[in-house]
Amino acid sequence: MKKLIGGAIAAFALSASAALAADAVKLQLKWVTQAQFAGYYVAKDKGFYSDEDLDVTILPGGPDIAPTQVIAGGGADVMIDWMPSALAAREKGLPLVNIAQPYKHSGMMLTCWKDAGIEKPMDLVNRTLGVWFYGNEYPFLSWMAHLGIKTDGKGPDSVEVLKQGFNVDPLLQRQADCISTMTYNEYWQVIDAGVTPEELITFKYEDQGVATLEDGLYVMEDKLADPAFEDKMVRFVRASMKGWKYAEENPDEAAEIVLDNDASGAQTEKHQKRMMREVAKLTADSNGALDPADYERTVKTLLSGGSDPVITKEPEGAWTHVITDKALN
Questions:
Q1: Which of 316, 76, 52 is nearest to 218 (CA)?
Q2: CA 297 from chain center: how many Å?
């Protein structure tokens, strides 16, 4: 009996020390808990992080949280951001580096009332367009510059930009002819409000040739000089991509896992399951490694911002394959 008790205590001590030995990782999300980030919640729920000896804390974002400020202040090891925002921050002195790119395609689009007489991009002139800011405006501004449309008010060659909150009210209340939406989120909020798809016309940034990379994983450049941190990120990316592929193959289960982690209780099952199926279309073609061609397209789009480009020169050292080469091979 004593031997059994002693063995049990030893086994418990061993498991406890193993748990203590797990490397802590803090991930800062770009937005609130939702299926946009399902791969990370799945990796945590399914034990993929534990299998890599990682103790991952997922920090939700929100309207009052700037991921760049969080990571700059040491509040996170790795963060999720759109590349336009990350490159703009890098040019301003925050040395962010993209270490992985789970999202291959852009989900951003402009959603407009069809009865406003909008059929093609140049019909946007002399309209009021809802645009997200706080770093999310960069793809839109680049697109307008690409079309030669000014953004200083309504006119024959200009548009009025309405600073859009993170809702679809400006469109529903006819304060704007078009608003910014994501294929997996706000577009469906419009539909759920009773609008039919036939009443709308959408312009996907992907189709307009000005899509920029979204939801990449970024770390501070100096951290990568630490072999221990690099190893931790290799394991983190490997487990995260395992989570993403599981989420793509099991979208409804992935959505349920997200709902289980939604402390706010604001998300609905219908919306999250639909979001997960749409998100899966954006991540399906990625193994996690950044495609240099996608990076070059993003940079080219951002540099073509006319007199006020998002970035003023070609970035250097803004991404690396070091992590994904080790994580995926």
A1: 76
A2: 18
Per-residue H/E/C for the chain: CHHHHHHHHHHHHHHHHHHHHCEEEEEECCCCCCHHHHHHHHHHHCCHHHHCCEEEEEECCECCECHHHHHHCCCCCEEEECHHHHHHHHHCCCCEEEEECCCCCCCEEEEEEHHHCCCCHHHHCCCEEEECCCCCCHHHHHHHHHHCCECCCCECCECEEEECCCCCHHHHCCCCCEEEEECCCHHHHHHHCCCCHHHEEEEEHHHHCCCCCCCEEEEEHHHHHCHHHHHHHHHHHHHHHHHHHHHHHCHHHHHHHHHHCCCCCCCCHHHHHHHHHHHHHHHCCCCCCCCHHHHHHHHHHHHCCCCCCCCCCCCCCCECCHHHHHHHC
Which tokens go with 188? 């469906």
pLDDT digits 0-9 by tens, 8-49: 554 554 554 444 689 999 999 999 999 999 999 999 999 999
CB-count burial class (<10 Å; 0-12, 13-18, 19+) for 28: buried
Tell me the percentage of the chain whose pLDDT exceeds 70. 92
Beta bridge partners of 176: none
Determine the Cα–Cα distance for residues 12 and 6; give it in Å rounded to an integer: 10
pLDDT tens, 278-289? Answer: 999 999 999 999
In degrees and rounded to multiples of 5, residue 162 shows phi and psi of: -100, 120
Nearest to 281 by CA among 108, 109, 110, 106: 106
